[in-house]
Design brief:
single chain, 557 residues, mainly alpha, Growth Hormone, Chain: A, two-stranded antiparallel ribbon, two-stranded parallel ribbon
């Protein structure tokens, strides 16, 4: 048996904790400054930057499907983690080079940015499902009830890294002078710091994997699939998936048909259509496996149902890197005890609060478990959805009377991130744990890939929702400088001239209100209420489904 830490958790958990910490430093540090770099250095509009941001995040959680498949069939978890870490470091270096040359060659810098994001997307695909899968494999079958706590601890590593990345990368990469003028050439240092962090995480894993990342019996975890031992599987569990040629062909055809539907009927862009279609077609393929027992099939359906509701959570939560960053930049008083906080750093409070509250939440689940009062995983997740709805409800009423010139006090954004952190701790690590508890071994990494596809769909929806951000105060001020009454234009009281439209386009200022689901969004209050409605309804429906899901989990909590 392996030695355990004083907490009763395997030492391998802390190796994975450290590896994930540096990887999240890399990812969230880059994320904190990405949209600001796109808008201020590469001259994108906020709408286009939000859509690109959503597409990037969505594809980051699409490729885990591929990474999970390659790990399960060919390379194994540990090799995929090393490949993924190196690819993400290379991608960050491409961003560094892009941010170094945009002033001399904007076209080349833009191309390098696209290449960089593509490399990071594939690197994340190799890395993410495999490290999550390994956490669940550290524990013997009789200790699977520890997984909610284990994933909460693991999640603290994620957010410690996020906190450090969102602290350091904005400090060195999002720099303004005393007059509030941004140094658009400083972004490169944030990207370089992210690259260094990813190299550190990869080295940590490579150096310690053989000693600590092992099964309860001491065998290396995550090796080549051909070397899996029968003891890794549940009694009576099939060790190999059985997909018929008909099922594979049907899955491919379904993917094509769904992509067309999302593209042409629902008017989604190609990337978003691929993300949505991939999740649905892969989910269908897995459930078609003829080796599945009724219990396995029921449990997989629980994963699918929960994954659907997770979409709405991430659509709301991931406004942090787009619309909430733009609001922090353009219509927020960021005076924090006498210090003007960089707008890209405001989201740091999420990572800070997770680090502060992850252990208390873990202790809470442990305490409730000892009293036999611990809510089942779907119930925890419905609570998370309700909390994120509450956070947007509070912020909506605090922006209601701001007008075009008022500034939102930073304390309200901090409160939003506090509530959203509690929501996140009820939902995200619990979801990861749920997949680990319910997945058949032969589908472990692939089902993590499916679960991350729900994240991908949520991020794609986040991009769509972020793009409907109405004009903020800075846009009205800029229009006034141009001699244009933007409010009158938006209210359709004044028809802008061709010359005025040219000026507005040149300054990335919309001259019509955004529309979502047939409703015109006039102000920030209406914008935030969209998230209240979406996540609030999702919370109520998931709560109502919980008794049925409990039966389908067949004793797993």
């Amino acid at each position: 048996m392996t030695k355990t830490a004083s907490t009763g958790h395997p030492k391998g958990l802390w190796v994975l904790f450290g590896t994930e910490m540096w990887e999240r430093f890399n990812f969230y540090g880059m994320r904190a400054i990405l949209t600001l770099f796109l808008v201020n250095s590469l001259m994108m509009s906020e709408k286009d930057a939000s859509l690109m941001y959503g597409a990037f995040l969505g594809l980051c959680y699409l490729t885990p499907m591929l990474g999970g498949f390659i790990a399960d069939r060919f390379l194994g978890n540990r090799n995929c983690i090393i490949v993924g870490g190196l690819l993400m470091a290379i991608g960050q270096l491409f961003l560094f080079f892009s941010a170094s040359i945009f002033g001399e060659n904007l076209g080349l810098a833009t191309t390098l940015t696209w290449i960089a994001l593509g490399v990071i997307i594939f690197g994340n695909g190799f890395f993410k499902p495999n490290i999550s899968s390994m956490v669940g494999s550290l524990y013997p079958k009789q200790e699977k009830n520890k997984l909610d706590t284990a994933f909460t601890i693991f999640y603290m590593g994620i957010n410690l890294g996020a906190f450090l990345g969102q602290l350091i990368c904005p400090i060195i990469g999002d720099v303004k002078d005393i007059n509030g003028i941004r140094d658009i050439h400083a972004f490169k240092w944030g990207f370089l710091a992210a690259a260094i962090a990813m190299v550190l995480g990869t080295i940590i894993f490579y150096a310690l994997k053989n000693k600590y990342v092992v099964t309860p019996e001491g065998r290396p975890l995550g090796g080549l699939p051909s070397k899996h031992d029968a003891s890794d599987f549940e009694e009576g569990e099939s060790q190999k998936a059985v997909f018929s040629q008909k099922a594979l062909l049907t899955s491919v055809l379904a993917f094509g048909a769904l992509t067309f539907i999302f593209l042409k009927i629902f008017d989604q862009n190609l990337i978003y259509s691929i993300i949505y279609s991939s999740g649905l077609s892969l989910a269908g393929l897995i459930i078609s496996d003829s080796s599945l027992t009724k219990v396995e099939r029921d449990r997989i359906f629980v994963i699918y149902i929960v994954a659907f509701f997770v979409i709405f959570f991430w659509a709301a939560f991931e406004q942090a890197g787009s619309s909430l960053t733009f609001i922090a930049d353009n219509q927020t008083d960021r005076n924090f005890f006498g210090w003007q906080m960089p707008p890209s750093m405001v989201q740091i409070f999420n990572g800070l609060f997770v680090v502060m509250f992850a252990v208390p939440f873990s202790m809470l689940w442990d305490y409730l478990r000892t009293k036999d009062r611990e809510p089942i995983s779907p119930m925890k997740q419905s609570i998370g959805l309700a909390l994120i709805a509450l956070s947007y409800f509070i912020i909506a009423f605090n922006v209601k009377d701001l007008g075009n010139d008022g500034l939102l006090a930073i304390k309200w954004l901090i409160l939003l991130y506090l509530i959203q952190t509690c929501a996140e701790l009820c939902l995200s690590p619990i979801g990861l744990s749920l997949v680990g508890k319910l997945s058949p071994k032969r589908f472990a990494s692939l089902l993590y890939g499916v679960f991350f596809l729900s994240n991908a769909s949520g991020y794609a929806l986040a991009g769509t929702l972020g793009s409907i951000l109405p004009a903020t105060g800075d846009k009205f001020n800029k229009a006034k400088e141009l001699g244009i009454d933007l409010q009158a234009v938006l209210d359709k009281k004044v028809v802008p001239t061709a010359e005025q439209i040219t000026l507005l386009d040149a300054n990335n200022i919309r001259y019509s209100n955004p529309v979502f689901a047939g409703f015109e969004i006039h102000n920030l209050f209406e914008f935030f209420m969209v998230f209240v409605v979406l996540t609030g309804l999702a919370a109520v429906i998931l709560f109502a489904l919980t008794p049925r899901l409990k039966k389908m989990m067949h004793g797993v909590r």
